[in-house]
Amino acid sequence: xxxxxxxxxxxxxxxxxxxLELARLVERVAAIAxxxxxxxxxxxxxxxxxxLLKEASRLGALLSGAGDAGAEExxxxxxxxxxxxxxxxxxAGVGVGAIVFNRRHEVLMMKRPxxxxxxxxGFCDVGISPAENAAKEVREELGLxxxxxxxxxxxxxLKAGSAARHIYSMLFxxxxxxxxxxxxxxxxxxxxxxxxxxxPQPLHGVDRKWISIxxxxxxxxxxxxxxxxx
Length: 230
Prior knowledge:
By secondary structure, this protein is α/β, with parallel strands linked by helices. The protein is built from 5 helices and 8 strands; from the N terminus they run αααββββαβββαβ. The protein folds into 2 domains: 2-88; 93-227, Nucleoside Triphosphate Pyrophosphohydrolase (Alpha-Beta Complex).
C-alpha cells in the first residue's frame, strides 16, 4: 500500500512539473513570436511568427481548459499587444513584495478579496525604483508608511511553481515608520501582524520559500539576497 501511495505521489509531482514546463514553453514561444513581429512586421518571417503565436495560444488554452474560443481570444490579445521595434520587445513582468516586520518580529499579512493571505505585493510602476514601489504598495494597500531596508530575494514565478504569467518579484525587508493599519477594501479584507511560525491560512499562491528566506534574514543573520540558481 505504501509503495502505491509513493508511486501516485511521484506521478502527481511529475504531472505538475510537466504542466509548469509546458506553461514555460507557451510563455517563451509567445514572447519570441511577439518580439519577432515587433521587429519584422511583414514578409516571410512575420508569417512564421504568426503561426508560432497561433500554436502557442492553442496550447495555452488547452492547459487552462479555455477551448477554441479561448485560444483565439488569447492569440488576439497577444497580437494586439505587439508594439513597434524596441518598444515591442517582450520581457518578464516585474513585481515587488514587502516583508514588513514590527517590533515583535511579526510579519504583516493581508487577506485578499479571494480569501487568501499574502504579504503586500504588486507590479512595478514606471518611473519609480523597486524600493519605492514596495513602499507605495504597503501605503496604498494597508495605510502604513514603511522603509525598505534590505533586498531579500529575486523570485522567478515559474521556478516558484506558478504556471501563470512569468514574473520576477523582488522581496524587500521593510520596517514600519508611521501611518495607521487601515486596509484598502479594494485590496484587502483584513490585515494583521503574525509570527512566521503561525501564519494565517490559507496562503495565496504556491511559493513558500519566502517564509524561510524571511526567517533567515530576520533571525539567522543572513545578508546575501536569494536568487533562483541556474
